[in-house]
Every structure is written in structure tokens, then in C-alpha cells.
């Protein structure tokens, strides 16, 4: 029974569907005897025959060999992947009533045909069924196929979990979209880069003038002033330096929210945006790392270079901490925060991707900020307006954003539907960022408008 | 705003089993009608109950309808219906209930959109075969031996057979 490595009996039950047939049969016989009608006794005898049929027979063992093939093991996001399942009856008993339910990974959506089949299998026969799933970002492993076998009368059933002979998985690694320019805050490293700083030196933008010191390059001497006043002075230009950035993605269970049941979750949106930010920042010469806020540990230390770019792409695509469905593990916030602080380089700033649907995310952003790491909150809007509860959550999220902004933390939101009445009640700080009239704002557009606002 | 749910699956019973159950119930009602009109009407009621049970996906409703059908057959038998018609009606009634109930469990476990024809056909065939065999044996014995015996003797004979069968299993 349990000796086969790939098959595991999960459940054995009596369905009880023939319960009472004996009673009905005996009642018919009784009526027949009392009314002196032999035909009724005969009908009752047929009922007894059914009762025997229900009692005879065992719940059959689903001695199946399962092979599962996918037509594309590394699809692009959105591709349809056809899955073919073959179940071969390797035992020597007939399976008169067999129901197969394939273990589709939780992160994949079945788009064509249910991944299920009901059939009957003679020894040596093979049943095949096909279905299609839509690929989404991540690594997806199939769970065992559940086989429910009943006896011919359907009075006993046995559920068996059957692994396929070779494990099935698909890996879907999206290309990171080339992101727009992402404005960073003033915290930088000593390396030359592209983030303007408040430090005077060599650069392109005017910063200040100071008294000439011996050794200053002649090109930076302010000759106009020399002509006007006769004094030598030196132009200071704004130095541009590289920054260390950690992309922190909120992947707690509460972040797996979406405005509609089958819409993209906030985690998906965050990962997509983090991918854009990753390529943009890395391309700009900054050092970028990746971390997740969630029960599973994920940490890619800040780095640069093409190997790092590939590693970042893989982390965002397939790391279990960023899986398309939430993990079952418990999340311990203070432990997580201590570990995160220990790892975070002192000069790192944090881009925090979170849907901001609970207070914990907002307070975390303020805590990281308080520890001296400049924080920019990037928030995909996963709220809806259908019910009063939806609107309350939406309102609370707005309030959190406002609070963050008034605490001096930059915040960008994107996506989500735009209601007409909300635009009027927005605070002055946020009013500039929703100008287009499309139904959803893309991350790049939101960042571009926010950049304009910040540089005013 | 909730965790992403799985797309809704059509958990209604497969159309084929519902239609086949309806046909079998029709045959049962017709046979009972030939035996005795009152009994036929009650068995027809049971057929309506099977449809209701299939639509509401409630095995309990099906069981009640099957009970009603048994009452109808008892009524037809007590009013002096012929053995042949009653046997046909009884087997068809069991088949109608069995298909409806099987359909509900198929709908629950694999859904209406899946392939279920083969499974349902094998199941219905088995049930029909068991019914036909039982009815054939019982009817044969009745014709051969018990045609002139009193009813009580027939019933006692039957109990003896059941006891023997139970002891053997």
C-alpha cells in the first residue's frame, strides 16, 4: 500500500451512498408479505441484490504511473503552457471509477480545460488529459496528482497522492523592463556616479564660489569676477556620486492583495517595478541590492556589474521569498528588522516597494528612515472602490501616504483605478502626480511626474 | 482586497448524467404507471425530486426522492401490479438515483467541464448489470419454483438466501 515511493494513500472512506437500501428492500418485502403480493417481494429481492453489490468489493488501489510533460519548461510571462498528463494503470485490477485531479502549482492559472479527469481504467490502459496554464513569473513545481478511486458501486473510495516519475517544473524569468531614470536621495558613497550631492567639487552644475586656493584648476577660476573685481575666485560645481541602493520588496502575506480577484497582486507589481528600478540604477552606475520584507529570507547584497545584474534578475524572477503566492511561514518583524539593519550598508538608501495596506509597512519605512537610511516609498495601488470596506482601506492608505510625506519620506504611488472625486480632496503635495487621464498609471510615468515634483 | 483565489470551477453535475438519470426516472414512472396509475404518479414525483436534487447538488434530496419512489412502487405492488413491470420500474428507479448521485460527486470532484463520459458510462453499466442480474435470477426462481407457493414461503426463502450470502462475504 504505502511501499511505493511515488504513491501515498491519503484517505480511505466509506461514502455511505447505498446506506438504507437494505431497509427499503426489507420494507418492500414486508409490504409484499402483508398485502400478499409476490411481485413486491421480488422487487425487494432486487434491492437486496444491490445491497450485496454495495457491500462486496474493496476500494481499489490506484496503482497508477503518472508522467507529466509540459511543452515549454521556460516560458515567458503570459505564455500558455500545455500540460499533458498520462496515467497508466500499472496494477492488475480494473479501476472502474477513477477521478484524477492534477496538482497545479498555486501560482499558475489554468486557462484551458480543468486539470481534472474522470474515467475508468482497465489493467495496462492509459488515460491522457491535457490542459493549459498561463505562465507567470517564478519557479513553479507541480504537486502530486490526486487520484480518487472508487469501487464499482461507489461505496468505498480511496484517495492517493501520486508523484509523477520525474518532477515537473517550469521556470519563468521575465526580462527586466528598462526603467526610466529614478531620482535618488542625497545619501551617497564616495564613488563617482550620477547622483547630485550637496558637496562642491568637480561636476557640471553650479554649486558655489569660494576664494581661490593655490592649485585650483585654471578652468574653474571665475574669470568674470576676476575682471570685475580683480579677485581670484574658484567655481565649485556640484559633485555627482554613486549611491548604494537596496530595493526592499514587501512580500508579507498582507501584501498579496489585488484590486480584483484575478488581477495582478501588489507583490507582482512591486517586483515588476523593482526590476525596472534595478536596471535603471545599475545602468546609472549605482550599487543596487535586493531584500524582501517577508517570512522567507532573501538578500542580494548591493553590487554592480553584469554578473550582479544577472543575479538580480534571477532573484526577482524565481526567489521563493517573492513567490506568486504567499508562504505559510510565520513572519517575525523584530527579528527581520534586526537582521536587515545588520546587513544594510551604512551608506545605503532604501527604495521600499509596498502596497501600504497596513500600518506596519508605514511604520517600518519611518523606522528605517530614523536609522539614517533615506527611504523612498514606492507604492502600487491595490485598493478598489466597490464596497464601503474597499473605500475605507483606500482612504487609510491615502492617509498613510500623506503621513509619510509629511514625515519627510518621499512616496510615489502608481497603478490603481482613478476615481473622479478623489482628485479633488488630495493634499497639495500629491496633487501634481495624477495628471494623465488613462485608467492606470504605469510605474515609469508615476516616477517621472514625481521627479518633477521633487525637483521643484 | 483578498488573497488571490482560484478561478471558480463549474461544480455542477455533468449534463450527461443528469439527462440519463432523467430518462431512467421516466422509464421507472412509465413502468409503474402500467402496473398501477397511482403508483406511477408517485414514482413520477420521485423523478422530479431527482432533477431538483441534481440542480441543488444535494444527495439528501436525492435520497428522499428515492424513498418516495420506493413508496410509489410499494403502492403499485399493493394494488396488484404485475411482477415484470414492477421489476423494470424498480431497477430503473435505482439507476436514476444512482446516476444522479454519481453525477453530483463527479461534479464536486472534477466538475462539469471535464471529460466524464467514460466514467459515468461504466458506472451506469455496472448498476444496470447488477439490477438486471438480480431481477433475472429472482424472476427466474419465481417462475420456476415459487409460482404456486404462498408469499410468506417466498419471503422466508429470500431471507435464507440473504443470510447465506452475508455469511459468505
Could you please describe the fold and organization of this structure?
The complex is a heterodimer of chains A (456) and B (169). By secondary structure, chain A is an alpha+beta fold. Chain A has helices at residues 21-34, 38-55, 223-229, 266-283, 306-318, 333-343, 359-370, 388-406, 420-425, 443-454, and strands spanning 7-14, 64-70, 80-89, 95-103, 109-112, 116-121, 126-134, 138-141, 143-150, 156-162, 169-172, 192-211, 233-241, 244-250, 287-293, 299-303, 348-353, 375-380, 410-414. Chain A has three domains: 1-172, Sandwich (Immunoglobulin-like); 198-241, no CATH class; 244-454, 3-Layer(aba) Sandwich (Rossmann fold). In chain A, the strands form five sheets. Chain A has a six-stranded mixed β-sheet with strand order 16-15-14-17-18-19, sandwiched between helices. In chain A, strands 1-10-9-4-6 form a five-stranded antiparallel β-sheet, with no helix packed on it. In chain A, strands 2-3-7-5 form a four-stranded antiparallel β-sheet, with no helix packed on it. In chain A, helix 1 (21-34) runs antiparallel to helix 2 (38-55). In chain A, 42% of the residues are buried. The model of chain A is unreliable at 418-439 (pLDDT under 50). In chain B, helix 3 runs antiparallel to helix 4. With 169 residues, chain B is mainly alpha-helical. The longest helix of chain B has 28 residues, at 117-144. Chain B is globular. Chains A and B meet through helix 1, helix 2, strand 4, strand 6 and helix 8 of A and helix 3, helix 4, helix 5 and helix 6 of B.
Please sum up the structure shown.
Chain A is 29% helix and 31% strand. By secondary structure, chain A is of the alpha+beta class.
Question: Which terms would index this structure?
Answer:
heterodimer; A: 456 residues; Immunoglobulin-like; Rossmann fold; 3 domains; five-stranded antiparallel sheet; 10 helices; B: 79% helix; globular; disordered N terminus
Oligomer: heterodimer
Shape designation of chain B: globular
Q: Which CATH architecture of the largest domain in chain A is right?
A: 3-Layer(aba) Sandwich
Please give the count of helices of chain A. 10
Structural class of chain A: alpha+beta
Number of strands of chain B: 0
Secondary structure tally: strands of chain A? 19
Arithmetic mean of pLDDT of chain B? 86
Shape of chain A: elongated
Helical content of chain B (DSSP H or I, runs of 4+):
over 70%
The helix/strand order of chain A is: EHHEEEEEEEEEEEHEEHEEHHEHEHEHH
Q: What name is given to the CATH topology of the largest domain in chain A?
A: Rossmann fold
Q: Which consecutive residue ranges of chain B, at least 5 long each, have pLDDT under 50?
A: 1-6
Into which percent range does the helicity of residues of chain A fall?
Answer: 25-40%
Amino acid at each position: 500500500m504505502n511501499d511505493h515511493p511515488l504513491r501515498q494513500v491519503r484517505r480511505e472512506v466509506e461514502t455511505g451512498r447505498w446506506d438504507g437500501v437494505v431497509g427499503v428492500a426489507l420494507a418492500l418485502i414486508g409490504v409484499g408479505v402483508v398485502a400478499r403480493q409476490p411481485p413486491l417481494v421480488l422487487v425487494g429481492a432486487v434491492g437486496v441484490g444491490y445491497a450485496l453489490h454495495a457491500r462486496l468489493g474493496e476500494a481499489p488501489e490506484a496503482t497508477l504511473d503518472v508522467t507529466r510533460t509540459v511543452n515549454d519548461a521556460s516560458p515567458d510571462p503570459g505564455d500558455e503552457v500545455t500540460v499533458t498528463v498520462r496515467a497508466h494503470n500499472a496494477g492488475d485490477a480494473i479501476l472502474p471509477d477513477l477521478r484524477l485531479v492534477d496538482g497545479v502549482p498555486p501560482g499558475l492559472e489554468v486557462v484551458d480545460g480543468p486539470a481534472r479527469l474522470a474515467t475508468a481504467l482497465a489493467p495496462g490502459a492509459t488515460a491522457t488529459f491535457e490542459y493549459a496554464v498561463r505562465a507567470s513569473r517564478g519557479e513553479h513545481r507541480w504537486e502530486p496528482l490526486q487520484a480518487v478511486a472508487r469501487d464499482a458501486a461507489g461505496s468505498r473510495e480511496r484517495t492517493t497522492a501520486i508523484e509523477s516519475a520525474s518532477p515537473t517544473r517550469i521556470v519563468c524569468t521575465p526580462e527586466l523592463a528598462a526603467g526610466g531614470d529614478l531620482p535618488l536621495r542625497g545619501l551617497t558613497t564616495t564613488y563617482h556616479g550620477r547622483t547630485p550631492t550637496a558637496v562642491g567639487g568637480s561636476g557640471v552644475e553650479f554649486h558655489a564660489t569660494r576664494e581661490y586656493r593655490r592649485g585650483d584648476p585654471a578652468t574653474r577660476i571665475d574669470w568674470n569676477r576676476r575682471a570685475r573685481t580683480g579677485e581670484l575666485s574658484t567655481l565649485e560645481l556640484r559633485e555627482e556620486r554613486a549611491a548604494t541602493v537596496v530595493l526592499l520588496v514587501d512580500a508579507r502575506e498582507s501584501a498579496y492583495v489585488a484590486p480584483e480577484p484575478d488581477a495582478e497582486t501588489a507583490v507582482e507589481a512591486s517586483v515588476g517595478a523593482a526590476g525596472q528600478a534595478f536596471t535603471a540604477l545599475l545602468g546609472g552606475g549605482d550599487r543596487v541590492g535586493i531584500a524582501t520584507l517577508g517570512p522567507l529570507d532573501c538578500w542580494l547584497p548591493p553590487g554592480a556589474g553584469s554578473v550582479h545584474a544577472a543575479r538580480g534578475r534571477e532573484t526577482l524572477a524565481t526567489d521563493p521569498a517573492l513567490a506568486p503566492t504567499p508562504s505559510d511561514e510565520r513572519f517575525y518583524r523584530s527579528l527581520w528588522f534586526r537582521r536587515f539593519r545588520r546587513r544594510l550598508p551604512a551608506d545605503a538608501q532604501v527604495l521600499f516597494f509596498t502596497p501600504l495596506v497596513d500600518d506596519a509597512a508605514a511604520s517600518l519605512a519611518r523606522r528605517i528612515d530614523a536609522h539614517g537610511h533615506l527611504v523612498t516609498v514606492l507604492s502600487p495601488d491595490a485598493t478598489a472602490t466597490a464596497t464601503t470596506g474597499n473605500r475605507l482601506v483606500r482612504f487609510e492608505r491615502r492617509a498613510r501616504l500623506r503621513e509619510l510625506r509629511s514625515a519627510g519620506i518621499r512616496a510615489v504611488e502608481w497603478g490603481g483605478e482613478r476615481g473622479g472625486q478623489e482628485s479633488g480632496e488630495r493634499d497639495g503635495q500629491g496633487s501634481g502626480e495624477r495628471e494623465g487621464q488613462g485608467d492606470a498609471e504605469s510605474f515609469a510615468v508615476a516616477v517621472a511626474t514625481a521627479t518633477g515634483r521633487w525637483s521643484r | 482586497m483578498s488573497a488571490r483565489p482560484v478561478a471558480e470551477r463549474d461544480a455542477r453535475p455533468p449534463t450527461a448524467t443528469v439527462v440519463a438519470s432523467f430518462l431512467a426516472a421516466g422509464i421507472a414512472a412509465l413502468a409503474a404507471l402500467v402496473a398501477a396509475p397511482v403508483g406511477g404518479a408517485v414514482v413520477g414525483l420521485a423523478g422530479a425530486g431527482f432533477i431538483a436534487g441534481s440542480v441543488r447538488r444535494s444527495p439528501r434530496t436525492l435520497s428522499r426522492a428515492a424513498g418516495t419512489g420506493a413508496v410509489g412502487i410499494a403502492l403499485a405492488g399493493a394494488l396488484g401490479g404485475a411482477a415484470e413491470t414492477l421489476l423494470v420500474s424498480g431497477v430503473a428507479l435505482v439507476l436514476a438515483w444512482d446516476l444522479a448521485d454519481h453525477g453530483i460527486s463527479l461534479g464536486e470532484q472534477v466538475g462539469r467541464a471535464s471529460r466524464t463520459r467514460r466514467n459515468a458510462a461504466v458506472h451506469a453499466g455496472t448498476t444496470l448489470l447488477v439490477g438486471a442480474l438480480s431481477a433475472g435470477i429472482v424472476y427466474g426462481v419465481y417462475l420456476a419454483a415459487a409460482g404456486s407457493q404462498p408469499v410468506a414461503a417466498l419471503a422466508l426463502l429470500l431471507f435464507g438466501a440473504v443470510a447465506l450470502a452475508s455469511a459468505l462475504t
